[in-house]
Give the backbone structure.
Amino acid sequence: MRWMWIDRIVEYEPERFMAAIKNVSLAEEHLHDHFPACGSDEALPLMPASLMIEGMAQTAGILVGTVSRFREKVILAKVGAARFERDVFPGQTIRYEAHLERFDPAGALTKGVILCLTHPALEWQEIGQVELMFSHIDQNMSGIKFPEENFVFSENFRTILRTAGLLELVDE
Amino acid sequence: MQETMTMTRDELFKKVQEVLEEALGADEDEITLETSLTRDLEAESIDFLDIVFRLEKTFSTSDKPFKVGQGELFPENLMENPEWVQDGKLTDVGMSMLKERMPHVDFSQFESDREVSKVAELITVNSIVEFVERKLAA
């Protein structure tokens, strides 16, 4: 499945909270470019922070989408703040926790915490925080018409919702 | 939490300044009363929503919520109403509507130009302070 940066939704509280996990694997090609061996420096595969922002945006975006039962087209409009304190390596699991701070006909604000499952202690350690703003684009882009169908929440998202038992949240 | 009703104008300005620093990533010294949000601080439409959310959080108290309605700070969909805008310029009806709905904005320099694309530039830091002051007093 292309461009899905979460593997599974694991917790959901309507209109408040969603948590999703992602397992980081050395089989993912991008890790070999981030970072490859260079001169005397050995390869250092790390989960890119930009893709962790995307993972949080997908978790939080689904949470925002559930409020309108996915009738609104929810677009990431602004990364208000993003702080990362630790690296994530292949073999580790990332947990994205998104809290819905504010919801409005025009858009929404979410605050998120990113955690990483450490080995061998098997403890969740906070590694960063991401604050995001989402726009309901049909309400905002004056004069621009978008297709009727909800192209934001495509088949990929339906699969994620189905595996979490949340498909009933989608209005057909 | 400080009682918002008793704030002086200078205290209001300081709080608005903090909101804009956070929402737009601007430095304190870039934000004076005359600063235009779009022209000087490059605010985009989503930033206005961010600013509204932050103003609501900053100025709400336990007994009085500070709630900003959609289009209250800045009217939306101006272009879609031919009574308000013709050939990219505001009509007399459009000007009256804007003045009535945006008492927090100074239109004195804009009367002769009336170009709708420049309306957003009229929102200054002073407009936001004025907007908050009026809403708190209402």
User: Anything to note?
Assistant: The two ends of chain A are 22 Å apart (CA to CA).
